[in-house]
Write a structure and sequence with these properties.
- This protein has 274 residues and is α/β, with parallel strands linked by helices.
- The protein folds into 2 domains: 200 residues, 3-Layer(aba) Sandwich (Rossmann fold), CATH 3.40.50; 52 residues, no CATH class.
- It is 27% helix and 35% strand.
- It has 8 helices and 12 strands.
- The strands form 2 sheets. The chain has an 8-stranded mixed sheet. It has a 4-stranded antiparallel sheet with strand order 6-7-8-9.
- Helix 7 links the parallel strand 4 and strand 5.
- Helix 3 packs across helix 4.
- The structure holds S-adenosylmethionine.
- The site of S-adenosylmethionine has 17 residues, from strand 2.
- S-adenosylmethionine binds next to strand 2.
């Protein structure tokens, strides 16, 4: 008979979920991103890169996939949050072989201050560099990335644009076993400050509200390119997501171009050459 002492408490799906695993499953696509890095680097530099630094690394999943890709690859993952790095050490790093573990380094530090060995690729993905709201801070960050790259290295940033950046909205997407909700909760049309949240909803109706929250400045591709040049980069290239000409559906394919129509939402990459 169940008594107050031995009764197992009922746990919802939300209670049992791990927000970092949900984030990796719903937000990140490291293999796609690393393919883009490999292919673009080969196009521009004529070789496959080996050394990579991942800024704002979070769980460092991209760095883990990078060292698995080729025996010659090395990765440095930088994040200033000890909790997320501890999670990485508990969940992602153990999935690497002993040999792969020798080729990855996790560093707890602020990307504005960290000093690392020079690398061929420096990636800052998922718009985390938009945490920097002041132009002077963005310039300082780009200068630091320039110093961290070998002379024929490349910086990879992602970027988004279009009228939907400048408004509040919610976007829902089904992922295996849960729903991912992206909420742009507040937008300040004077400062361009955007407050966003990620929520997760489960089939048993339980929820993790505000699993992750970010306050970003919405930067434009043009002004970012200008700041990159000011920081000492010699050239920048924007790769814009392609759209199906008949359906207007966004495609997983990017072209180097300065042309963009007034898309409601477009994703892209900025690649900068030292
Ligand atoms: C949205 S997550 C990005 C995770 C991953 N890079 C991705 O592509 O999804 C943002 C991460 O940036 C880290 N972060 C924010 N500001 C930082 C800074 N100045 N220096 C180092 N890490 C920072 C946070 O701790 C958080 O783990």
């Amino acid at each position: 008979m169940a008594t107050a002492e031995n009764k197992t408490p009922y746990l919802t799906m939300a209670d049992q979920a791990d927000r970092h695993l949900l984030y990796q499953a719903s937000v990140q696509n490291p293999d796609f991103e690393l393919d883009f890095i490999d292919d673009t680097f080969k196009d521009i530099r004529g070789r496959k890169p080996k050394s990579m630094r991942e800024d704002f690394a979070g769980t460092a999943i991209s760095s883990c996939r990078w060292v698995k890709r080729r025996r010659s690859n090395t990765a440095i993952a930088v994040d200033f949050d000890p909790e997320v790095l501890a999670w990485s050490k508990q969940h992602n790093i153990p999935k690497l072989t002993a040999e792969q573990k020798q080729r990855i380094e996790l560093i707890e530090d602020d990307v504005l201050n960290v000093t690392t060995d020079k690398v061929e690729v420096l990636q800052a993905y998922n718009f985390s560099y938009w945490f920097f709201q002041e132009r002077a801070t963005m310039l300082a960050y780009f200068k630091r990335t320039r110093e961290a790259l070998v002379d024929d290295g490349l910086l990879f940033l992602d970027v988004f644009g279009g009228s939907e950046c400048y408004q509040t909205q919610k976007e829902k997407r089904k992922v295996d076993g849960f729903k991912y909700i992206w909420e742009q909760a507040e937008f300040n049309a004077i400062t361009n400050e955007l407050k966003c949240h990620i929520h997760f909803h489960f089939p048993d109706k339980s929820k993790i509200k505000k699993a992750f929250s970010y306050t970003w400045r919405v930067w434009g591709a043009r002004e970012l390119r200008e700041i990159l040049m000011e920081a000492g980069y010699s050239e920048t290239i924007v790769y814009r997501q392609k759209f199906d000409p008949k359906t207007d559906e966004a495609l997983d394919d990017y072209i180097a171009t300065d042309d963009a129509e007034d898309y409601a939402c477009w994703l892209g990459y900025i690649v900068a050459k030292p």
